[in-house]
What we know:
The complex is a heterodimer.
Chain A: E1 12-23, E2 49-60, E3 63-68, H1 75-83, E4 90-95, H2 110-119, E5 121-124, H3 128-131, H4 138-148, H5 154-167, H6 184-195, E6 202-206, H7 214-230, E7 234-239, H8 242-248, E8 251-256, E9 259-265, H9 266-271, H10 276-286
Chain B: E1 9-20, E2 26-38, E3 43-47, H1 54-62, E4 69-75, E5 81-83, H2 89-95, E6 100-103, H3 115-125, H4 130-143, H5 160-172, E7 178-182, H6 190-205, E8 209-213, H7 217-223, E9 226-231, E10 234-240, H8 241-244
Parallel strand pairs in B: 3-8, 3-9, 6-7, 7-8
Antiparallel strand pairs in B: 1-2, 1-4, 4-5, 9-10
Amino acid sequence: xxxxxxxxxxxxxxxxxxxxxxxxxxxxxxxxxxxxxxxxxxxxxxxxxxxxxxxxxxxxxxxxxxxxxxxxxxxxxxxxxxxxxxxxxxxxxxxxxxxxxxxxxxxxxxxxxxxxxxxxxxxxxxxxxxxxxxxxxxxxxxxxxxxxxxxxxxxxxxxxxxxxxxxxxxxxxxxxxxxxxxxxxxxxxxxxxxxxxxxxxxxxxxxxxxxxxxxxxxxxxxxxxxxxxxxxxxxxxxxxxxxxxxxxxxxxxxxxxxxxxxxxxxxxxxxxxxxxxxxxxxxxxxx
Amino acid sequence: xxxxxxxxxxxxxxxxxxxxxxxxxxxxxxxxxxxxxxxxxxxxxxxxxxxxxxxxxxxxxxxxxxxxxxxxxxxxxxxxxxxxxxxxxxxxxxxxxxxxxxxxxxxxxxxxxxxxxxxxxxxxxxxxxxxxxxxxxxxxxxxxxxxxxxxxxxxxxxxxxxxxxxxxxxxxxxxxxxxxxxxxxxxxxxxxxxxxxxxxxxxxxxxxxxxxxxxxxxxxxxxxxxxxxxxxxxxxxxxxxxxxxxxxxxxxxxx
Lengths: 287, 255
């Protein structure tokens, strides 16, 4: 960074513009019939769900952005559209690590999209069953993205897997145990190890600690926080839990009924929320 | 104080109100028409009774609170001037750390990290080399009476007073150009408080501008070059410490 010109802010790695996702038939008129003003994401005429609409944000390397909201607010949908798990209805998503950000990744053919998932972007899901093959060993789960990226040498794959397990604090003697026999917290650690296998530029975390015991969750959170500090990742964290958002992110957006109702610095959101919905969420978290 | 110096911070016509949408939409006004400037090397203490708006003002300047009206001109290291009230969130993040720092009375939740590591990381984040940061962290911790036996323990196991001293060490290492201090020594016993105050006193010599809230008169008389007295969200007095201090009421330094 140039010290004489501090406010030249880091350039974004992820740029999301006008992202929208509708489940069901789409008709532009349903936009004004849904959202926070009408109190629902479901269009009464067509029955379609406007799960996310007009979502815009950028994330730089070394930065973590939070997406906050209750279940059904559309936050996971946004993440899944960016990841490519679900096709978006509309929008423009660019990664500077892919074709220098000149390409809208939402329009890529499926094969190129899959390559991006292997080489540049990883997702850590709330449910380890989504991110891991539970019947496969921890080492095997990590080897999978490595072989997909072209690694062929068994010894090197083993040692990379060991390095990642060590980094995520999974005992090495469990490397050859199948993941189904792991505890919830340990499964999340293996999922994180797998997500980091190919040194991605972008990591998307979807409720990474939800459903874990408090002490286990804090250990996993701790791990994620240290990885964020040590690796220069662009990170998006989806969570309904403000302690997760506070620990991991510097900025956030708040979603309600599929729309972004507030954008803020994380400390600002917690101390001076503007939108009535944000105020309700923060008050509930403090209670 | 050399008054020909450029101020580092100029607040003018600053106001802050909170709209509480879920408590019958009422608006609470916390600051009104706040105008003042701070020079590099100046130590300005905010005084006033509980609820006068001292902490609110610090939070507005750090942009933890959004500004309702008014401007906060900040003179960057580069000589450029920005209005904190108008900066984007990303720009605020770029400003925080090396230009503006905020030290509260609490150590923010940290991942499992040792005391020495936490303090030296703060230095590295503000541009120090790892070696310098470790040396400086060790020096500060020693000056703050944090014994070496505690340097490699995780901060969660520290006492309240130890945490507060670690927080000060982290906040003051390679200090930013403007430091906002919100009761940073409130939990310390007299001896450790005196040590912390010594460390804070060094900031002025280093040219750091400090805007602080303390709840003890000793700290204020030792540190302040200027005192701004607030009441009901307004500035009611602003002058050299020697002139304002004699008029402070006991309630002006209550937490």
